[in-house]
Amino acid sequence: MMKIKIRSYVDSDYPQVKKNLVDGGLFLENWDTRKNLARKILLNSNSILVATIDKQVLGNIYIVEDGWSAKIARLCVREEQRNKGIGSILLAKAEKILKEKGKKEIALYADEDNLNLKNFYKKRGYFMGGKCRCMRKII
Question: In sequence order, what are the residues at sequence separation of 6 or more whose Cβ sits closer than 8 angstroms to the Cβ of residue 65?
């Protein structure tokens, strides 16, 4: 098996990251624009990580950290590459980055209908807590 490399996102990764998100049902047109991702990495170059083999972006994860809270989002692995450990490697790297910043807890959102993803996170120590649900408003 080829070596998986985890690195920070660069703008030229956008088409492949978008494809991963669309295929995984995680793409949000107002949030995941090329311009927004460029702004995100300008503010924090490690806020989007990609998993690559050669030049293929096989998976990605977003890190959201504002000094008060820490979240991960958009963990997505290309369908034909799932169940090979790529998601686990991305998640572990994101957790390591946040732990090194002094974070003690990470929050995330998982679609309540996506049992595979919820089970993936549960196996890695995440739990459902509280009664809050994500609410959004397009402005």
Answer: 44, 47, 71, 98, 101, 103
CA-to-CA distance for 46 and 69, rounded, in angstroms?
A: 16
Q: Are strands 5-8 and 56-65 parallel, antiparallel or unpaired?
A: unpaired
99: alpha, beta or left? (left if phi > 0; alpha if psi -120 to 50) = alpha
For 43-74, the pLDDT digits (tens) are 999 999 999 999 999 999 999 998 888 999 99
Which one, of 20, 27, 1, 123, lies nearest residue 79 by Cα? 20
The residue assigned the tokens 């459902």 is: 128
pTM here?
0.90
One-letter amino acid of 90: L
**What domains can you pick out in the chain, each with its CATH number?**
5-123 (3.40.630.30)
Distance CA 25, CA 23 (A): 6
Whole-number Å distance between alpha carbons of 62 and 73: 5
Decide if 108 contacts 63 (C-beta within 8 A).
no
